[in-house]
Amino acid sequence: MKSSDLFARATALMPGGVSSPVRAIRPYPFYVERARGSHLATVDGADLVDCCLGYGPLILGHAHPDIREAIGHQLEKGWLYGTPTPLELDLAGVIVGDHPAVDMVRFVSSGSEATMAAI
After folding, report:
1. Across the strands, what pairs with 96?
2. Would the pLDDT of 92 be above 80?
């Protein structure tokens, strides 16, 4: 299925055919089938350099072997507890330790949650 076909389907399921206005490319967005390193492979067969890389979180690229291995190890232990974990403290310590102006951190899931915590 090509990007044009997928977009036609999307317009019946999502307002504007996309989940975010930034994805509203004319005449239709391209759809990614897979990614590796800094490259995206589209359903149309194009190989593109991904200059966004998830807007930051994928700075090491897509499917980086070290990241995949770390995720695999964590998946064996579980991936969503809804409770505090030692890894959370480790990450907080790294952030606070690396940034002298930061006294404490709070991990949140959304901008709204961050705003509520700040208030």
Report:
1. none
2. yes
Q: Which two tokens stand for residue 18?
A: 């996309």
Locate 43 and state its tokens.
């359903």
Which DSSP string corresponds to 46-64? -EEE-SSGGGTTTTT-BT-
Token pair, residue 37, equals: 């390193």
CA quadruple 95, 101, 106, 109: dihedral positive or negative? negative
The answer to whether the pTM exceeds 0.85 is no
Angstrom distance (rounded) from CA 19 to CA 35 = 20
- Do 41 and 32 touch, CB atoms closer than 8 A? yes
SS3 46: coil
Residue from 24, 30, 29 nearest 43 by CA: 30
Half-sphere exposure for 81 (CA within 13 Å, toward CB): 10
